[in-house]
Specification:
362 residues, alpha/beta, Rossmann fold, 10-stranded mixed sheet, 10 helices, 16 strands, 26% helix, 18% strand
Length: 362
């Protein structure tokens, strides 16, 4: 497949035309796609009729490079605008990653009655390709996924048990992972069965979040892989106090640090890769059973071996939308200081906010 390589070397300075009003410092310059004929599929986290994107992604900062020009020291984020099983498989295959041993596919099962979540028919092919077991952890709040038996029922109701084996990782409690180099955490609590798997494919629906500002790959390996106990620990910023009234930046930093503990355990990320699906871009998380309807168009599917680069690329694509498309999601991100998660994740070595964006679309 012909690949177009696009890269931008970020200055880690605020880009006024992109992040005006963000109120954060050291934001990387972002990368867009030059292709003016890109399409975006209007898919409810699944497969449906596609539509022409009337407001294609564009950036004056995008630079077309050849394979030899791509900086190998900068993580690559692969992207397709084709939100379909074929598109998902293609962007996954672009990673050129071969899982070893027993493979877990981490995703969110979605909170009933009407949350957004990745449609099983969208992900079925890639789950089967890695011979994966879909895994999830219980929540730390009320609802239909706080208890193991109910959570298994939700997984069945939402169609995940039809396409693969499924396991609640913390049905038998927690296991402890050390946190190296953290400022708020010294340890992280994941599901007790986390260590039973050798490789992890992390499938995330990128969207907003009522507390974190946004949810993507980092949230999926921190809050998402946290046991019920671990979720409460992260939300409290490692204090063991209230999940809901703690210091905001401590919570955001705890997410980054918990994510790093997971990556470190999996041989510094060698045994884990990440895919973000950018559709149904609500301001609310999939843990919300009645999320707000999105007010922006779908964008595509992105994948990387670097969760920081991947989430940063998704953030940048949201900010690059024109004519106010995505303004509510941007407002949600900024109102929660959501970019601080990325700042801290890069600071502690989870990944890089600088990346090469590579379109795999022909």
């Amino acid at each position: 497949m012909k690949k177009r390589f696009l890269s931008v070397f970020f200055t880690l300075l605020l880009l006024p035309t992109l992040l005006t009003g963000c109120g954060t410092q050291n934001e990387p310059t972002t990368v867009g796609l030059e292709n003016k004929d890109q399409t975006s599929h209007n898919v409810a986290l699944s497969v449906s009729d596609s539509k022409k994107n009337d407001d294609p992604i564009d950036s004056q900062n995008s630079i077309t490079t050849s394979d030899s020009q791509t900086n190998s020291d900068i993580p690559t984020v692969y992207m397709t605008s084709d939100i379909s099983p074929e598109g998902l498989m293609s962007v996954y295959e672009a990673l050129d990653w071969t899982p070893t041993g027993k493979v877990a596919v981490k995703l969110s099962t979605g909170e009933p009655p009407a949350s957004n979540y990745l449609d099983p028919q969208l992900i079925k092919d890639v789950v089967e390709a890695v011979d994966g077991t879909i895994v999830e952890c219980n929540t730390a709040y009320g609802g239909s996924r706080s208890e193991t038996a109910m959570h298994y029922q939700v997984a069945e109701d939402h169609g995940f048990t039809e396409i693969a084996d499924f396991q609640i990782l913390d049905e038998n409690g927690s296991m402890t992972l050390p946190v190296e180099g953290g400022s708020v955490l010294t340890e992280n609590y994941v599901g007790a069965a986390f260590g039973d798997y050798d490789s992890y494919l992390v499938l995330s629906h990128f969207k907003g979040h009522a507390m974190a500002g946004y949810g993507g790959a980092i949230k999926n390996i921190s809050i998402g892989l946290g046991s019920s106990e671990g979720k409460a620990w992260i939300h409290s910023g490692g204090t063991g106090g209230s999940m809901w009234g703690g210091e905001q930046d401590a919570f955001l930093e705890a997410m980054a640090e918990a994510g790093k503990s997971v990556s470190d355990y999996l041989e510094n990320g060698e045994r884990i890769v990440y895919v973000n699906v950018m559709n149904r871009l609500s301001v609310d998380c999939d843990c919300d059973g009645n999320p707000a309807e999105p007010d922006m168009h779908d964008i595509g599917i992105l994948a990387s071996t670097d969760p920081v680069a991947l989430d940063q690329a998704c953030i940048d694509l949201v900010y690059e939308q024109k004519d106010g498309d995505g303004a509510s999601l941007v407002k949600r991100i900024e109102s929660r200081n959501g970019l601080h998660t990325l700042e801290h994740a890069e600071e502690i070595g989870l990944g890089s906010r600088t990346y090469n964006l590579v379109s795999i679309d022909e």
